[in-house]
Amino acid sequence: MIAYLPLLLATFAVDGLILGFFIWAFHSDALGKYRIMDKRPMKVAKKTQALVMGFNLVFSVSTTFAFLYFLADRLMTTAQTPVWMICLQALGVLVVYDFIYYGGHRLMHNKKLMRYVHGVHHRARYPSALESLYLSPIETFVGLALLVVAALLVGPVHVYALATAFFVYSTMNIMVHSGLLFPSPLMKPFNVLAKKHFHHHWDHFDKNYSSLTPLPDLVFRSAF
Fold first, then answer.
1. Angstrom distance (rounded) from CA 90 to CA 14
2. Is 75 a domain residue?
3. Most CB contacts within 10 A, which of 1, 146, 185, 203?
4. DSSP structure class, residue 193
5. What is the pLDDT of residues 153-169, one digit of tens each?
6. In a domain, 224, yes or no
7. CB 114 within 8 A of CB 56
8. Has residue 57 been placed in a domain?
9. How far apart are CA 163 and CA 180, in angstroms?
10. How many Å apart are CA 106 and CA 222, to the nearest integer?
11. 3-state class of 167 per DSSP?
12. Are 138 and 92 contacting, i.e. CB atoms less than 8 angstroms apart?
């Protein structure tokens, strides 16, 4: 846990900057032309939005620390490991997570679970990066728990592999909710995912269940 702490704090700091940038970009007049759709407010009181988002931010950070505190020895190692193996471990965690999350996300679209859990997040019909924090605490916990399960199945993995996987997981969650499509060729993969997830919120609730890549949706024929 001690070895992972600086990496975790750095991830939170960088993700905070990325979140801030995408919030600014979405509301900026200069970058407004890159929005997938014009700004449309949620049909939820702003005070409620702030409370839900603030609580989820604190709950997410606290839960992450709790998982690492209690499962550190089973999740990660600091033993000398080749760079190629660290990269392979990180990729393995992310691929396993993406498929597990796909199943969990699709299950949460069950009418009963949708109403009480995942439906909270879908109140953001036209999501921007800020709405990545608007979800039920149950869903916040489940998302982090699934990443931990993926790491346990692959691991224990090197501390750098786990840090890489967590950074990709947390950063992609912000970016797929950005509501923006940037013209740079380097942003094309992120644009594809952002557009797919936007449509999942807006008009194709039974498509695009995967989180990090389109792969699970392509395998199970639920891509749009």
1. 19
2. yes
3. 146
4. H
5. 998 999 999 999 999 99
6. no
7. no
8. yes
9. 27
10. 10
11. helix
12. no
